[in-house]
Design a protein that fits this description.
387 residues, Rossmann fold, Dna Ligase, domain 1, nine-stranded antiparallel beta sheet, five-stranded parallel beta sheet, 11 helices
Length: 387
């Protein structure tokens, strides 16, 4: 009998996961708060509801009786996932992992206090007075984030006292879920940021993809490249930390574990997502033998992953909307498609707001190709798609 997967959140990552699932004959129900979300366009069925509404979520599960629930976003009534898990439904990677990682307090305390991983110094604040006191303790510059958010929403960098009020207001407004609280972090003077895609398996050891370098703007991914060159010792540190935190959270699937690399070569744990990672879209450009969505699916299903190996150097650059509009933009693919070793993925989002991710440009080359040239090419071509 065909396994049924319920996807909670149907954005671009969910769309690529659904394509991977459909290629091997699985049945997918795509859920989101709005119609025609990207994954809905390729799924078997759809449900439209607010996933923070626990009763609506339970009703959708009751209606479709999925074998597997795959969360793709943070804004979910996560405590209900424990109920589903107890009923025998597989929650990916686990209800515990999803519940922890939706909340920055839980994951940061797990990493820093329980596992003793190196993280940025941090405090929490529910009021502006608490926030101001925390800023005085940490000093400037500092980083401010909602306790619950995704894709960099509500994140800002604060350089002085004059910027505190606006940063606090933005973080409180942009936070997802019921918890109105912010986290204020020490600013790490890092040399670079990277993601280690980590695959936990049911009957096999945890394995890692080659590290992915990435650039963020206002906390949101803009470009990524694979492989990201790391000294052996730094890679070993990152793999150890990724293994420790994913083991503590339990479950099977792919995890996007983010790190800072300081100018002194120190590896510092940043964040973790228990699902395919936006920076990992670079794997759609033939960098590895299996892309992150195929790896996620195999781990979920308990299917073997003989090896992960690098096949090409590759880069991704996001395609951003330039206006606020209740319709899709007009896409121009001619310039990008003229060039070899180039792929375009349009997400199919039904409307726009300024700087919304509408697609991704993927460029790749041989393992000895110049990564800076590939990055420049990807960014140049991405800029031609939406006029």
């Amino acid at each position: 009998m065909t396994k049924k997967i319920m996807l909670l959140g149907s954005g671009e990552l969910g769309k690529e996961f659904t394509i991977a699932a459909k290629r091997v004959g699985l049945h997918v129900v795509a859920c989101d708060r709005y119609n025609e979300a990207p994954a809905m366009q390729v799924a078997d069925e759809r449900e439209i509801f607010n996933m923070l509404d626990g009763d609506a979520l339970a009703a959708a599960v009751e209606k479709h009786s999925p074998d597997i629930i795959v969360p793709e976003i943070e804004a979910i009534r996560t405590e209900r996932l424990f109920d589903f898990e107890q009923r025998g439904i597989q929650v990916v990677p686990s209800a515990k992992a999803v519940n922890f990682t939706m909340n920055r307090r839980a994951i940061r305390d797990l990493a820093s206090r329980e596992l003793s991983l190196r993280t940025a110094k941090y405090y929490y604040a529910k009021t502006f007075e608490e926030f101001k006191q925390a800023a005085d303790e940490i000093g400037f510059p500092c980083v401010v984030k909602p306790l619950m958010s995704s894709s960099g929403h509500g994140q800002s960098y604060v350089h002085n006292d004059n910027e505190l009020q606006a940063a606090f207001h933005e973080a409180m407004e942009e936070g997802r879920g019921d918890v109105k609280e912010v986290i204020i972090e020490e600013f790490i003077d890092f040399d670079s940021e990277f993601t280690l895609l980590t695959v936990t398996q049911k009957n096999a050891p945890t394995i890692f993809c080659p590290p992915i370098g990435h650039v963020q703007k206002s906390g949101d991914y803009r470009e990524s490249w694979q492989p990201f060159c790391l000294p052996d010792e730094a890679l070993s540190q990152a793999q150890h930390m990724a293994n420790e935190v994913t083991k503590a959270l339990e479950g099977y699937g792919i995890w996007g574990v983010e790190f800072f690399l300081t100018k002194q070569g120190e590896v510092i744990f940043s964040e973790l997502s228990p699902r395919p990672h936006d920076t990992g879209m670079v794997t759609l450009g033939h960098t590895t033998n299996l892309n992150e969505f195929e790896l996620h699916l195999r781990a979920i299903m308990g299917w073997p992953i003989p090896a992960i190996h690098l096949e090409h150097n590759g880069c991704s650059a996001v395609i951003l909307s330039k206006e606020n509009a209740d319709h899709e933009p007009t896409y121009n693919l001619m310039e990008a498609l003229k060039e070899d070793c180039t792929r375009v993925r349009i997400f199919g989002k039904p409307d726009q707001h300024v700087n919304r991710r509408m697609g991704v440009m993927l460029c790749y080359g041989s393992l000895d190709s110049d990564m800076n040239e590939l990055r420049d090419k990807a960014k140049r071509l991405a800029a031609t798609v939406i006029k």
